Amino acid sequence: YIASQNRLFDISDSSLRHYINLRNLTVTRTRLTSISSDAFYNNTKLQYVNLRDNNLSMLSWRTFQNFNITFPLLLSGNPLDCVCENMWIKLRLQEDIDSPELTCTDERGETRDFATLTPPDCVVPKVELTPKTVTVMEGGDVKAVCSASGSPVPVILWTLDMPSTHYEINPLETKSTLTLSDLSPDDNGRVIVCSAENMVGQTEATLQLNILFPPTIQQLLGPERDHHWCIPFTVTGNPKPELLWYHKNELLQEQDYIRTMIHESTENEDHGCLQLVNPTHIHNGEYKLVAKNEYGRDEKTVTAQFIDPPNISPTDDMDYCK
């Protein structure tokens, strides 16, 4: 809470960067004139911002782009200008019911109600990304086109997190083409964002990648004992592969005491184990895991020794028969 500070003129990233848990901020009755676009970059937990009765004439939407639109942002009592740069305030502002109407000053020096503000050539960007989803085999290519409109003419930006995939961007004034080459299984499930922004605001559209690839058994480990015995495995594949177990080359019929358990599942991988409850020596031997989908299959084997078999000598057998 900051009030009546005559030497406070601006707020920048360096002002609040160490207050990472800041939730409520009030700055009122100061000479605050400017707030930088990255002022609240590190304050991701902000839920309430009160900037009433300062000296702010212009504010960028970028300053509050990480601030949830449902949280209060209070600005009344500032000499805001009736300009396009402030148009975003009309679109998203929330004031208390009992607060005075938010106003701005036009180029003639007249006070106007913010709700009626309609500056010329001032339109929020619209953006369209085609396609919105794409399904392609690994090694394939994808082309996406992002088209934008708005006034002033918006800038088109791509957000990609694809370190292993080659891509090219061909920008034009109102559209931008993205070409992805040699897509890998690591790209499966990724979301690509195209955004269009101008001084009025920002709009986003997304493309989701569905990369098809055959199964691979990344690991198959020897049995481990926790609450029950477990043969751990990690399997990749899209679509999710069917898993079959073989014991001594015979198909294993799963039931309550021997069954596949998936402990963690992501877009690309399943981590789990073959769980065995109280196995005996008859469960010793070689286990083979087969993973298959419509694009291929993979298999691996592991040897399990749960309990040593009973030591029965031939003499014991004869004595038993008598």
Automatic annotation (TrEMBL):
Coiled coil: none annotated. InterPro entries: Cell_Adh-Cytoskel_Orgn, Ig-like_dom, Ig-like_dom_sf, Ig-like_fold, Ig_I-set, Ig_sub, Ig_sub2, Leu-rich_rpt. Transmembrane segments: none annotated. The keyword Membrane does not apply. Gene3D superfamilies: Immunoglobulins, Ribonuclease Inhibitor. Keywords: Disulfide bond, Signal. It comes from the Eukaryota. The keyword DNA repair does not apply. Residues 125-210 form the Ig-like domain. PANTHER family: CONTACTIN 5, IG-LIKE DOMAIN-CONTAINING PROTEIN. This is Ig-like domain-containing protein. It comes from Ilyodon furcidens (goldbreast splitfin).
